[in-house]
């Protein structure tokens, strides 16, 4: 809504009336910049560390056993899962 108040978009000298909105906008853009940098650092660290996963990837629930997408009306009753 800064444009509705007359704040120019691509101009470096803002009116003194809108300096507070310019500061708030600048702080928000800096927070976004730091967040993206932190996200990239986390992604980089996770790719380079090659730690073992801490959860089991062999799921035995019905959602993971059946084919995707399941065939329409494929079950006349709820299937039983036998855990070995």
UniProtKB/TrEMBL annotation:
Signal peptide range in chain numbering: none
Gene this protein is translated from: COI
Catalysed transformations (reactions): 4 Fe(II)-[cytochrome c] + O2 + 8 H(+)(in) = 4 Fe(III)-[cytochrome c] + 2 H2O + 4 H(+)(out)
Subcellular location(s) per record: Mitochondrion inner membrane
Keywords for the protein's UniProt record, in alphabetical order: Electron transport, Membrane, Metal-binding, Mitochondrion, Mitochondrion inner membrane, Respiratory chain, Translocase, Transmembrane, Transmembrane helix, Transport
Start and end residues of each Cytochrome oxidase subunit I profile domain: 1-82
One GO location term (cellular component): mitochondrial inner membrane
Name used for this protein in its record: Cytochrome c oxidase subunit 1
SUPFAM superfamilies assigned to the protein according to its UniProt record, in alphabetical order: Cytochrome c oxidase subunit I-like
Similarity-based family: Belongs to the heme-copper respiratory oxidase family.
Topological type in the membrane: Multi-pass membrane protein
Biological process terms in GO annotation: electron transport coupled proton transport; mitochondrial electron transport, cytochrome c to oxygen
UniProt pathway annotation: Energy metabolism; oxidative phosphorylation
Subunit structure: Component of the cytochrome c oxidase (complex IV, CIV), a multisubunit enzyme composed of a catalytic core of 3 subunits and several supernumerary subunits. The complex exists as a monomer or a dimer and forms supercomplexes (SCs) in the inner mitochondrial membrane with ubiquinol-cytochrome c oxidoreductase (cytochrome b-c1 complex, complex III, CIII).
An example molecular function term from Gene Ontology annotations: heme binding
Cofactor(s) listed: heme
InterPro entries: Cyt_c_oxase-like_su1_dom, Cyt_c_oxase-like_su1_sf, Cyt_C_Oxase_1
PANTHER family in alphabetical order: CYTOCHROME C OXIDASE SUBUNIT 1
Ranges annotated as spanning the membrane: 20-44
UniProt source species: Arytinnis fortunata
């Amino acid at each position: 809504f800064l444009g509705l108040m007359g704040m120019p978009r691509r101009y470096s000298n803002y009116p003194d009336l809108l300096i507070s909105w310019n500061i708030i906008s600048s702080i928000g853009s800096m927070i976004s910049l730091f967040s993206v940098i932190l996200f990239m650092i986390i992604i980089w660290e996770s790719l380079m560390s090659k730690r073992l996963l801490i959860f089991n990837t062999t799921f035995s629930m019905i959602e993971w056993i059946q084919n995707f997408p399941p065939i329409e009306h494929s079950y006349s009753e709820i299937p039983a899962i036998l855990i070995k």
